[in-house]
Amino acid sequence: MPPVANPFIRVTVDRDALVDEMVAYLHDPRPSRNERSVVKALDEIHPESVEVLEAMLLDGAEDREDVAAYVAAVFGERD
């Protein structure tokens, strides 16, 4: 489900860009990865995704397909 469920407001997510940035986060070995703009953006609209991203990092998940599946599940399939 999208972060905002309202018949009057529609939030658009650039899924490809989001997946790219999440994968870049997972491949970034530096502690400063937590300062990436994707972390700040997700923290504002869907903080649970930051926790999932950190769990993916700890689990060693790096595959774009896994990240894309998560993004699709949380933010919905393409319109």
Question: What is this entry, summarized?
Answer:
With 79 residues, the protein is mainly alpha-helical. The protein has four helices and no strands.
Number of domains: 1
Rg over C-alpha atoms, rounded to the nearest angstrom: 13 Å
Mean pLDDT: 89
How many helices in DSSP terms? 4
| Strand residues, percent | under 5%
Total beta strands: 0
Structural class: mainly alpha
Spatial separation of the terminal alpha carbons: 13 Å
**Overall 3D form:** globular
Give the topology string: H per helix, E per strand.
HHHH
Low-confidence stretches: none
Structure in words:
The chain has 79 residues and is mostly helical. It has helices spanning 15-27, 37-45, 47-59, 64-75. Helix 1 packs across helix 3. The protein is globular, with a radius of gyration of 13 Å. It starts with 14 loop residues before the first helix and ends with a helix. 15% of the residues are buried. The mean pLDDT is 89.
Question: What structural keywords apply?
Answer:
79 residues; mainly alpha; globular
Write the layout of secondary structure elements.
Layout (H helix, E strand, L loop, with lengths): L14 H13 L9 H9 L1 H13 L4 H12 L4
Helix pairs in contact: 1-3, 1-4, 2-3
